[in-house]
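The passage that follows is intended for readers who have already worked through the single-chain material. We present the inputs for a multi-component assembly, then the predicted structure in tokenized form, and finally a short commentary. You are encouraged to pause after the input and sketch how you expect the pieces to fit together before reading on.
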Amino acid sequence: MASFKPTNIPVYPKLGEKVTQDTLYWKNYKAPVQIKEFGAITNIDFSPVTPHNFAVTAFTRIHIYGPFSQEPVKTFTRFKDTAYCGRFRSDGQLLVAGCEDSVVRLFDVGGKVALRMFRGHTKAVHVTDFTSDRYQILTGSDDYTCRLWDIPNATELNVYQEHTDYIRCGITSKLNRDLFITGSYDHTLKVFDARVDKSVMSMDHGQPIESLLLYPSEGLLVSAGGRYVKVWDLLKGGQPLVSLRNHHKTVTCLALSSNGQRLLSASLDRHVKVYSTTNYKVVHNFDYAASILSLALAPDDESIVVGMTNSILSIKHRKSPEESREISGQQRRRPSYRVFVKGKNYVPKQDDYLVSKPVKQYLAKYDKQLKKFNVSKALDCALEKWIRLRNPEVPVAVIKELDRRGTLKNALAGRDEQQLSRLLSFLIGNLVDMRFAPVLVVAAEMILDIYRSILGQSPVIDRQLLRMQDLLEREIDYQKELVEVLGMLDTMFASSLPKMEVPCSSVSRSNGLSQGEASDWNCVQTG
Amino acid sequence: MVEHGDIRVVHRGGSKIDFRQPVITNDSRFLLCASGECVKVFSTSTEECIHDLQGHTDLVTGVLLRPSNHLQVYSCSIDGTVRLWDFTDGILIKTYVIGCPVYSIYASANHEGVIFIVVPMLGDKRSELFQLVAVHLPQSGDQLVESRELSAVLSNVSSNPADIAFGRGGEYIASAKGLQLKVFFFKKQKSYEFSLKEDNKKGGLNTFTCVACHPKDDCIATGHGDGKIRLWRNFNHKKEYTYSTLHWHHNAVSSLCFTPEGTNLLSGGVESVLVQWRYNQESQRDFLPRLGAAITHIAVSPDGALFCTSHSDNKITIIQSCVKVSAVIQGLVKGESVQTDLIVDPRSKALVLNGKPGHLQFYSLQRDKLLYNLDIVQQEYIHELGLEQFEVVKAAFDASGTWLATVEERKQKSAELEVNLKLWAFDEQTQSFVLNTTISAPHEARITAMCFRQATDSQTTMLVSTSKDGHFKAWQLATPAHTEDEGPSWSCDFVGTYHGLVPECCCFSADSSLLAVSFQEVVTVWSPTSWELLTTLSQPPGAIRDLCFGRLSCSKYLLGTTAKNLLCCWNLLTCSLEWSTSMDISLLLADPLSENMAAFCCQAGCTDLFVFKPSEPRPLFSHKAVCSGTVTRAVFAPREKMLDSCEENSQWLNRSQLHFLTQYMDLMTFTTKAEDDRLMASSKQLVIDDSVAMTPFYLLLGKHRHQQQENQDPMSSLSAERTPLPQSSVAIKELLQTPAHVLPSTSFLCSMFVQSLLISVTDLSGCRENNKKAEEEMESEKEEEDSEQEMESSIVRSEQAAVSVQSAECAAPALTKAQVRELRRLKKLDHSWLAGLLDS
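Having made your guess, compare it with the prediction:
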């Protein structure tokens, strides 16, 4: 006596993104903390020393936030105009910032008043940075020049006038005190050596450059400008390595995750993309509410801070290990299983005789009814609300099974208004789904056949039938358009492909589980 | 060595075992059933076939326990004989020659020496009318007895054995045919007839299909074509009979059976549900559902503990008290057609073909036994006539047997074709195939051919399927892209077409560097690594029917047969036609282990076989008229042990054996004379003159017996001769050298051992009796008693045995009067001293 074979519920390939190690890692952040600033946030910089405060440059102020506070721990307000590029020195003691009024100010993190003011630029200064020896400052300005300043004397050391447009980004080497790189709106990025008066290397990005990033080893340089993110190999004389085009608006900011394995880019298209630095494929994606101007990652990826054009600062903190474990722990503890496994760990002794219990077969509700040949009840069980909404494949599989048994008509007939409307609403929801169409079209035809005589008696049913008709008409139009597009593509491919000796056409890959366009088209037509 | 390599065509796979109702013996240990030309004896506990009762020369049509001796069984056959067998030992006791075909056999304990058989009317062998006759079996000592005195009981009966049944205590016999039920009373010598009105409402299906009589009560149960069961009572009056109707079955009731005490009625039909009705409380029913296939016969053991049901898929199920299936005896399932080719599983070397609906059966060719059924469709089978079911239409194994690909399809009247391609991986732990990937709708139309790439070294396995939708697809095992717990699965790698033609067959070359796909008249050759079309070959007119690459030294040849009776051989090195010949070949296949190719060619309703090498012009072997009808399925099965035949025309059978299916679904094969001789020799060795099975026990005891018989003469004359010493030493040797686990119990051996040491002369014959008794005891497997009591009881029982032997009409070794007298005398002798000896 064989046991009852339950209805086979097909497993369809999951749509949407796949769960990878990366998604798990980047999703492991708490809900963001949002802080309203006074204007667009142009720069965010983390202090290199603990407790890793970060400076947020927005409009005429620079706020310094602690790692967990939502109120600024410190505010610098002594700017006459919009401040730019507030950056910490490598010891976290000093902060430098440019300003629209062309004056560069140096602050002590503890104080309020500027320690030094560097005057010399003629236009707004958008780039400021400390060199790695901590005694000099690099600035870049809209007057096309970049300058080096000495901090103790507050004097200008050198002027470089090689760029031919605004300088909007620059970075100093962390390993060599004399090296720095600037990027400009003239599409070039130049590597300067303070020991010579000229740039030592120049690369063409092809777009106005918005942001620059050096790898910790400083062999690779990343530049962002326009829609492109480009990686340059400095050791090979500035050879372009990769060009990434994953954003559809200007990329404004770049960041590197703390272990250097992932590169992040933020753009005006409101996305932050995470790339793997080994193959430069996008492994994760964050969405934000507004265009992003600035982005920074705390050391060890403890938090992601994003500044947007709508002057909102969004801070995401990483979940602590306890928190993330709690969630998975809850799932594991769900059933009070322990009660039932009493004696499960018992190790049988040598003379013990093991009495094996027959394994009980557990059947789903609809299978129990199918086993008893109660076809209508089986369909009812499968159409229960939570099943119908969450796993539409279950009712479809049951309908298919009933059709195979030749009893689908019996199961569909003899319904009252409420049951029929439930059936129709399920059909309307899933009829045009490519996976379910072949099965549901048969059921829909049967329903129309059975209940044709009672049309016009119930306004509810009539409305639903009209909706179904509307849906089918739209689907037919849609499929027609798709076929047209397919035809256009075919002609394009045919004209673009070189003429081959061997006519082997239609080399396509399909996963086999999805049915062809044409068969779906047929189904809809019959429906 | 072989003198003449004579090659014969022989049947394989056994005959139907569900042809007639099986019989369970009184002790419920054996089950007997008619199977082709022999009666098979199965063990009810181990499901093994113990022996075949061979002797009939035509289809056996009935098996029946002899009412007066429960160790003997009658069997009847179309060949016009009724044979009496001792089924425990498989000995033919008597043959009664009736003279005309016998279709069924009945007997009752009240009618001693008479059997009732169904024969054609008036000896006209072709007539459709049958009669029930009584045959008096003559008492005679001969093996072959003519018994042609037939006395008619009922005329115009059905030839179906289920339509006749003996009533309570054999007082009457009931027979049903069409719409009429006849009851014949033996005492009154009078028959009553009861007719049902034809039911015109629903196709008039209330004809009788089977009859059963209550064993203790005057009640006849009849089954009908519309699924009703009627219980007839008071039928010894012409007019005042009554009947009540039970209805559960929705199709014809195929078998009815009362339990021996009459408390329950069992019924079965195409629903494959065994229904148990309480007698007199018919509303109470028990069901045993999902028995696998339509029930054709039901039988109950005489003690009522075991039921057995025969099923239409050549299966007998043994059920313990309507609750538990305890054993399943399964023969080779033969459906209407084998849609999958015959395939050999490379791992188990089993033949694989369609079995039960939705299953593949694995049939061991070496052991000639069904191994198991693999459920392919994995859906609840609905036993209903006229329902479209999923059928397995294609199957293929890869070279190592780790992957199995199956195609199942279901054709509906209105909707489109449903096709599923399933790939199964062999699981080492469970030793069976586990479903890996299901691809629903792999093609838009029917799949015409499928083959695996026979690569032995590469880790990538590839499957190619061709379909009527004009595409062929290559499927490959892909490792998952993400680090998840799911294993590798199959996905489509390549889709190929050729001018929109329909591909018919595909084939990989021996080293799997080439794939040949035939598109109607054109053969395209592809490289499976780069999917480049290398060349096209064509020999119009006629579409290609079969494609085959040569093997080993002939692997440069590609052979194809066309619909216009042409066999072509292309040389792939020159890409030109090497040779072609005009033959109507229905099937072409290559031996995977040699260069040989076999071609079945259909000519004038018969099929001829040619075996040839592509490189040689002359066929190696040809066999005219292998069978009637066309052969469409055949396979080369590799042999377990290579034959060393050097005869030229039997050499091709050395490495592998050719099996084929005829139009009538008979599995046939070719054997050489040498094989036949070997088989004969082994079976001769098994035929023992005695009734004891060839066991280590027998070897141990048989020698003793032999020597005793030699010594019989001196013993019967009671000469005071000494037992020769060698005999005792042999016994000791046997005792010490035989492995302990095959020895009989010590209590039994002890007496023998002691006897071998005895120097006694007076009680030598007593000891002999002792031995003899022990043998009988071992056969009946009764529990051994303590050795002390044994000595006394043994004597008593030996006398009983002697008496039973006397009373038996025709027991095999009859004792002479002198011997019986001697036994009686021995009984009176005092053996107490021996008991004392054993005590010490």
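Commentary: Chain A touches chain B at residues 1-8, 10, 18-21, 370, 401, 404-406, 438, 442, 502-513, 515-516, 518-519, 522 (CB under 8 Å). Chain A is about 25% helix and 30% strand. How closely did your sketch match?
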